[in-house]
Amino acid sequence: MSLTLEQVQKIARLARIEISETEAGTTRDHLNGIFQLIEQMQAVDTRGVEPMAHAQEQSQRLRDDIVSEPDCRAACLAIAPETEAGLYLVPKVIE
Amino acid sequence: MINKSLKQLGQALAAKDISSVELTTLFLDRIARHNPELNAFISVDRDRSLAQARAADARLASASVAQPAAPLTGIPIAQKDLFCTTGWKTTCGSKMLADFVSPYDAAVIAKLRDEAGMVTLGKTNMDEFAMGSSNETSWFGPVKNPWDMAHVSGGSSGGSAAAVAARLAPAATGTDTGGSIRQPAAFCNLTGLKPTYGVVSRYGMIAFASSLDQGGPLATSAEDCALLLNAMSGFDARDSTSLDRPPEDYARALEKPLNGLRIGLPKEFFNDGCEPAVMAAVEAAIAEYRKLGATTVDISLPNSHLAVPAYYVIAPAEASSNLARFDGLRYGYRAPDYDGLDDLYMKTRAQGFGAEVKRRVLIGAYVLSHGYYDAYYLQAQRIRRLIAGDFAAAFTSCDVIIGPTSPTTAFKLGERTADLVKMYLSDIYTIAVNLAGLPAMSIPCGFADGLPTGLQLIGNYFDEARLLNAAHRYQMTTGWHERMPEGI
User: Fold this and answer.
1) Residue of A31, A46, A91 with shortest CB distance to B359
2) How many domains does one find in chain A?
3) What's the rounded mean pLDDT across residues B243-256?
4) How much is the pTM?
5) Which residues of chain B make contact with A49, given a CB cutoff of 8 A?
6) Which pLDDT value is given to residue B400?
7) Does residue A29 lie in a domain region?
8) Is the separation of the CB atoms in B455 and B285 below 8 Å?
9) Quick one: which of B171, B168, B151, B256 has its CA closest to B216?
């Protein structure tokens, strides 16, 4: 497998990371090198093997539906780049 | 004082031979003197550390025979900078979080500081978001190896390892996703322990690959690691994968004789992929274990060569999801100039993340994307099960698996930054352990050309006490772990 420049730009777009045209070439070469390593997996016959998502296979623990965390709204807003009236500010998205 | 074990330091503090303020000052002074060259610490806050030391001294003063202070009270510890710490910056080695101060404490921080009474000495340097094997991806610059300043300290917990190796701290915390405690321990002549997945709470640990990440201690001996794990571990309802098990004393079996211990030697770890000088040290350690009464058995981990490829699918996939939170809106870096919301995301992440982090996020986004998920992500997860199965089969005929921690000693700074795959293969012996979720240690086993070599011990699930026992008995007869670098 070998990624094209267009594919690299598409992945970067999915990941919301801006990549300049000059960076795209280097990034493609690096990623292709890593995928060469990854491709070793494709030679393995894994039919009938259940995917393993986790080291400890246990069901999700549930807790009672009660308030367990203190109010940390002010502390969380205090570290945001931009807030107003207790809300996070984002650039205008609806004209 | 800088070479005393944690137990000895605890006894000296309890006997009032030294105060926590004196001890903390001693290490802060060493940091002030040596850190400019080593770059092991990202944040040091003398006043805050000394305030904690005074609080510890108050605890020690009010302790009694009936109500003794916790055994590590007043002992300073360096914290890897991915554990969220109130009052300190938590940078995770990234420009993205260069000025981030967490509104809450990681479970490990709170346990060591509030329950154990330990003093935070500072926050240690690390590969950016723990993605690296040499500490060279840090936004705050590489860490130097105290054994040879031209060499890397290993990664990603490279700052923690360098700090303890240079005795700028008696002990440190680390995290291990693919070898990030064990490999730096091997490179810096330390003892490092990655516990069974789920033993140490991940609450407040900035996530890299959540199904692999696990915190653990980096120290000079197995005994120190046992005491630290006692203080760090335990069930935490705030971590959804924390295991609800009865507390145990990890130091309980340290002194047990090794007669009858069955050591498995995987043939895949004893091939020509390992430098001969490292292998010679490992072979000598195995001979020492035989003298201590252990027997060896040849085993096979037939899928171990697939661990690195599977890891570079699973870890980036989880990372691309975890690092989606860095959006420039709620905390962390925000690009100064942008045109609309989407551009804000794109530029913030382009400027805030370093090259290695971007690569891994991109790999993750690709292997999770439509049309590639089955071929990459599910295939990697199936291989993960094969790898875990190899270990399960091996542990039917042995108690502990032994081999090298890393195929080389600490390589030179800059030597591998251009060859990514070679850098990734630095973790060839450690990664399979994370995929399976097993506990493992690295302990010092000698030197090759003046640089430390590491012996890896892998145990079955929840067998930390046995690993620590095997490590401790070896350390009682060899003394490699007591060596420290000259000139520091």
Assistant:
1) A31
2) 1
3) 96
4) 0.97
5) 382, 385-386
6) 98
7) yes
8) yes
9) B171
Distance from CA of A4 to the nearest CA of B (A): 13
Tell me: pLDDT of B467 over 80: yes
Cβ–Cβ below 8 Å for A51 and B340: no
| B344/A34 Cβ within 8 A | no
Give residue A15's domain range.
Answer: 5-43
Partner-chain contact A72 B104, CB within 8 Å: yes
Closest Cα to residue B200, out of B132, B110, B123? B110
CATH number of the CATH domain containing A25: 1.10.20
Burial of B336 (0-12, 13-18, 19+ CB in 10 A): exposed
pLDDT given for residue B28 in this prediction: 98
Give the domain CATH number at B202: 3.90.1300.10
Domain annotation covers residue A80:
no
Confidence band, pLDDT 50/70/90 cuts, at residue B488 = confident
B80 carries an active-site annotation: yes
Chain B positions in Cβ-Cβ contact with residue A61 (cut-off 8 Å):
237, 240, 244
Alpha-carbon separation of residue B7 from B12, B251, B455 (angstroms): 9, 11, 24
Confidence category of residue A57, pLDDT binned at 50, 70, 90: confident
B309 Cβ under 8 Å from any chain A Cβ = yes
Domain count, chain B: 1
A90 domain residue, yes or no: no
Confirm if B122 and B45 have CB atoms less than 8 A apart: yes
What is the Cα–Cα distance from A70 to B112, expressed in whole angstroms? 22
Percent of chain B with pLDDT over 90: 96
Q: What is the pLDDT of residues B10-28, one digit of tens each?
A: 999 999 999 999 999 999 9
A11 located within any domain = yes
What range defines the domain where residue B408 resides? 1-488
Q: Which helix (H) or strand (E) holds B194?
A: strand B191-194
Task: With a cut of 90, say whether residue A56 has pLDDT above it.
Answer: no
**Length of chain B as a residue count:** 488
pLDDT in tens, B310-319: 999 999 999 9
pLDDT recorded at residue A92: 86
Residue B163 near residue B208 (C-beta atoms within 8 A)? no
